[in-house]
């Protein structure tokens, strides 16, 4: 009886948590599909009262948004594999405790997790590398994450040593062992890193704000921030202006545009979770059980 009561409480709590976290996203989705001229627009609703795709048509016909989608997809498609390659190779090397200077090298990398030069020195380094207003400013400065490297290194240290020894007996060198033995069995933790890296690239806006001035290099999230800031002024319109806008019965509004852009920026990365879910929890737990 106690077990049934406990399970009911747990499932009830999880259901409540799901509703609380899912409803804001659902509300944005419904508003993006509702005609902005609908008198009930903005009110509580579980489905569109006046279905319309005009907001999405407006968003997807905007050249700036389309270009930002291309930039964001490009940095994600290029940045994620390069990050995985760098993180996994460094993690494999540092998983070998017989490496000369192993402790000092590890301390060197861990030091960078706690101390950094700050924004201005970082900007100066990026500028000295001629990466300002360059697409590669989205790739190279953040290509390595020490936290992810430690996660992958810890995972590799927990693998049976017999696998590498058997491969060495067969004549495999370190590169062959890394590519054909280690990488295939590190799928859970690498899938976790893939998810983290993809989310980071897709949602990044600050580097585009700091390091780029060319509008053609702005990411989707940077454009979203710009749109949200621009349309905040709509809340300051006079009552007469608001009434005039309502009388025009426009199918889109600043609010509906914001909702549609938010969905365009959010939905693709959300769809990645089901694809990598079976690896995510396993990779996080196994990579974190050993220090």
UniProtKB/TrEMBL annotation:
<keyword id="KW-1003">Cell membrane</keyword>
<feature type="transmembrane region" description="Helical">
    <location>
        <begin position="135"/>
        <end position="156"/>
    </location>
</feature>
<dbReference type="InterPro" id="IPR000515">
    <property type="entry name" value="MetI-like"/>
</dbReference>
<dbReference type="InterPro" id="IPR035906">
    <property type="entry name" value="MetI-like_sf"/>
</dbReference>
<feature type="transmembrane region" description="Helical">
    <location>
        <begin position="105"/>
        <end position="123"/>
    </location>
</feature>
<keyword id="KW-1133">Transmembrane helix</keyword>
<protein>
    <submittedName>
        <fullName>Carbohydrate ABC transporter permease</fullName>
    </submittedName>
</protein>
<feature type="transmembrane region" description="Helical">
    <location>
        <begin position="177"/>
        <end position="199"/>
    </location>
</feature>
<keyword id="KW-0472">Membrane</keyword>
<keyword id="KW-0812">Transmembrane</keyword>
<feature type="transmembrane region" description="Helical">
    <location>
        <begin position="65"/>
        <end position="93"/>
    </location>
</feature>
<keyword id="KW-0813">Transport</keyword>
<feature type="domain" description="ABC transmembrane type-1">
    <location>
        <begin position="65"/>
        <end position="276"/>
    </location>
</feature>
<feature type="transmembrane region" description="Helical">
    <location>
        <begin position="257"/>
        <end position="276"/>
    </location>
</feature>
<feature type="transmembrane region" description="Helical">
    <location>
        <begin position="9"/>
        <end position="29"/>
    </location>
</feature>
């Amino acid at each position: 009886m106690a077990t049934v009561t406990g399970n009911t409480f747990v499932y009830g709590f999880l259901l409540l948590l799901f509703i609380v976290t899912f409803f804001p996203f659902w509300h944005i989705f419904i508003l993006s599909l509702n005609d902005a001229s609908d008198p009930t627009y903005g009110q509580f609703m579980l489905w569109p009262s006046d279905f319309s795709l005009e907001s999405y048509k407006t968003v997807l016909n905007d050249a700036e948004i389309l270009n930002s989608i291309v930039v964001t997809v490009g940095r994600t498609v290029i940045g994620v594999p390069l990050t995985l390659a760098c993180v996994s190779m460094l993690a494999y090397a540092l998983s070998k405790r017989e490496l000369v200077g192993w402790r000092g090298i590890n301390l060197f990398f861990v030091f960078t997790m706690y101390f950094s030069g700050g924004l201005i020195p970082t900007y100066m380094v990026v500028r000295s590398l001629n990466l300002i207003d360059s697409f590669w400013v989205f790739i190279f400065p953040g290509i390595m994450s020490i936290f992810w490297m430690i996660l992958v290194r810890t995972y590799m240290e927990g693998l049976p040593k017999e696998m590498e020894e058997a491969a060495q007996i067969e004549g495999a060198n370190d590169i062959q062992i890394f590519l054909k033995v280690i990488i295939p069995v590190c799928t859970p933790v690498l899938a976790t890193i893939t998810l983290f890296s993809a989310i980071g690239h897709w949602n990044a806006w600050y580097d585009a704000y700091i390091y780029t001035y060319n509008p053609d290099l702005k990411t989707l999230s940077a454009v979203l921030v710009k749109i949200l800031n621009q349309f905040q002024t709509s809340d300051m319109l006079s009552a007469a202006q608001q009434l005039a806008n309502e009388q025009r019965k426009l199918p889109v509004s600043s609010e509906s545009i914001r909702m549609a852009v938010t969905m365009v920026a959010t939905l693709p990365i959300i769809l990645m979770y089901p694809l990598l879910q079976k690896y995510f929890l396993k990779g996080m737990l196994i990579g974190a059980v050993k220090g």
